Amino acid sequence: MLKNDIPVIKLRWAAWGLAILLLAGGLLAYILFGGFNLGVDFESGLSQRIRIAPVGIEVTYDGTQDVVLSISSTALSIEMRGDAGVKVTSLRFADYPSAADLVTALNAMSGITATAVDGSLKSSTLLSGYGFPATLGESAVKLNFQGSKGTSIDEVRKALDVIGNAKVQTVGSVESSTFQIRFGIKDGSTQASLEDEVKGALAAYFGSGNVVVLQSDYIGPKFSKNLVSSSVLAIAVAMGLILIYVWFRFRFAYAISSLVTLTHDVLAMLTMITLLRMEFSSTTIAALLTIIGYSLNNTIVIFDRVRENMEINKNATLASQIDKAVTQSMSRTVMSALTTLLVIVPLAIFASGDIRLFSISMIFGLVFGTYSSNFLAPTLLYWISEAQDKSKKKKTT
Q1: Using CA atoms, how far apart are residues 65 and 80, in angstroms rounded to an integer?
Q2: What pTM did the predictor assign?
């Protein structure tokens, strides 16, 4: 327990100055960067995650059975389905450490012909992607392995220059040679035509088969517009319901204070997303709505304290009541924030994809929500209440 109350009201100008400075920086970044780094959810077009990786093995099949080749993190599996039933052969990388070893094992199977393009590649670096499991036939199925040399983002951009309007981002380390690429919809284009165009451009630059598509998503313009409008509506409805709830539970000054500071939390999160060029997607909307709930809960706890203190000691000034309420709630605020961070931080470090994006957004939202509920909402309540009191005094005189 703190011995002295936190001077929240004395720090009000500094607190709001810092908040405004951050939001101004976000606005400037938004203008300079030309808006958010929109994910495929909100920006119609094609989004692919690719990996530049050399072909190590080519496999064909000329038998009468249905043969499917699949790749896991520990083995290459061959499933043969025929009149005699189903036979699955698993070639574990621990037992076949090189591409040459895998080729020898594959050639020992009836009807399968495997050719080593680079037999020295380690089997543990064998990659799976879009199109796997693959059905074997007369056309060669190419197996890619993680390359020893990383590919730069400039090379990928150069390869896609022939298409134009490409956005390229590095995913993970440079050595992984993994990239996220996005293209807007062209007139008359379809998912298949865009995918073929990208495949052709990359093959022309890096060589046929040396690009693995890990993920491919296509969003039409109608769907993206509906998602944008639905997201805006969800946030607006949440804010409206919060305004009504706080207004009825407390009074108008409390409701406006809550709404303004929640708006700050949303804008502050969007500021960091813009500055760090994080992807703005439906996951971001989920994080925004979650933080609105977290921040509101903390704000209501402090407002409850303010109201209770005013009933207990009616002679104390509003400023001292607010300082006392924030101080009384600080231990709860700190414990809530720390326990939440204990869950979120490991996900932000070790997870990937949407979960990692959600966790990072939540960390920023948690910081801003804690700051606003302890410094911005109480000081705004003070200003509005003071203004209302002055207005009442003028009317009575």
Answers
A1: 6
A2: 0.65
- pLDDT tens string, the chain, 397 residues long: the values are 556 788 889 999 999 999 999 999 999 988 988 888 776 666 667 778 888 888 899 999 998 899 999 999 899 999 999 888 899 999 999 999 999 999 999 999 999 999 999 888 999 999 888 788 999 999 999 999 987 677 888 888 888 888 877 778 787 766 778 888 887 766 666 777 788 888 888 888 888 888 888 887 777 655 556 666 777 777 778 777 777 777 777 777 888 888 888 889 889 999 998 998 888 877 888 888 888 888 888 888 888 888 888 888 878 888 888 889 899 888 888 898 899 899 899 988 888 777 888 899 999 999 999 999 999 999 998 888 888 777 777 766 6
Given a contact cutoff of 8 angstroms between Cβ atoms, the answer to whether 197 and 218 are in contact is: no
Does 189 fall in a domain?
no
- Residue 145: helix, strand or coil by DSSP? strand
Own/partner contacts of 20-28, CB < 8 Å, gap of 24 or more, are 22/268, 22/271, 23/264, 23/267, 23/268, 23/271, 25/271, 25/275, 26/267, 26/268, 26/270, 26/271, 26/272, 26/274, 26/275, 27/271
- CATH number assigned to the domain comprising residue 231: 1.20.1640.10
Domain count, the chain: 1
Give me the domain span that covers residue 21: 12-42+222-396
Q: Is 236 exposed, middle or buried (0-12, 13-18, 19+ CB in 10 A)?
A: exposed
Q: Are 324 and 309 in contact (CB under 8 A)?
A: yes
Mutual angle of helices 353-371 and 252-275, in 10-degree steps: 140
